[in-house]
Give the backbone structure.
Amino acid sequence: MILMRRNRILRQSSAIRSMVAETKLSPSDFIVPLFIEEGNNLKVEIASMPGYYRLSLDNTVAEVKNLWSLGLRCVLLFVKCADNLKDQYGKEALNPNGLMQRSIKAIKDAVPEMVVMTDVALDPFSSDGHDGVVINGEIVNDITVDVLAQMSVSHAAAGADFVAPSDMMDGRIAAIRQALEANHFTKTGIMAYSAKYASCFYGPFRDALDSAPGFGDKKTYQMDYCNRIEAVKETLMDVEEGADIVMVKPALAYLDIIREVKNAVDIPVSAYNISGEYAMIKAAAKMGWIDENKAILETLTAIKRSGADLIATYFAKEAAMLIN
Ligand code: PBG
């Protein structure tokens, strides 16, 4: 056979394959979600996220030093709020001495160069378990946006590098940007969860923070997974309103959306490889049905290949070790 093009030439050795690989993962691609709870020397495994833990702040600080030494450069903080501090307005979210605010300070003091992002949404603090303020069974947009803007300023005051609103209320990016400007936080970034879908794959996360909705679902604010064009609309609005980084969430069932968004914007795109996606790989690996390490690298590479510049993932540490 005479062939003028033999595509297998570029696949014949691992050296050649690594030279022509179009997508390469690096630890600095990853954003490490951290779950923090009140207490001392606590390390509590999350039942539906085997190998992932809620840590007390002392252990979190030690973990952040460890993450930095592995080449990881960014953490995304979530706190578990005690039941007795939850209320309709999520006012614990604004407590200058709240667990989130103390955590930001402690982490920035211990590892000043680590980029600290913070979750901005009311669900961990809301007695209704919704991302916004609930009045008469309705998640009320504008009142919620006001609280989220104050929450963002409070995180910025504690030293957060980026606030990451994950709530999907309308107009919150503009309100947060204005509030940051008005309070002279001109170096605080916004990573907007721009195309966040109402997904069944968030289940394990809600176990981790005990933040499942008390009634109903999140379909009146999170996006309908039937939609693609709407993701572009949501994202472009967030860019216009002042987002520095936009996000698509979840990642795996939404690789088409990541690519669509990547093609539409001129700022970095992140994707959230969420808790249910983590749990599925862990479960199959535990059953011996897939090779966990290979599944992690293939999954994260696919997310990056689809257009994500940054990936929030519970596999960050394992992946960094595999890459190193
Ligand atoms: C809520 C929030 C959720 C996640 C991050 N922030 C869950 C939800 O919207 O109900 C999910 C992350 C994950 O599943 O890993 N503001």
About this structure: The domain at 24-323 is CATH 3.20.20.70 (TIM Barrel). The longest strand covers residues 30-37. Residues 119, 121, 123, 131, 166-167, 202, 205-206, 218, 274-275 surround PBG (CB under 6 Å).
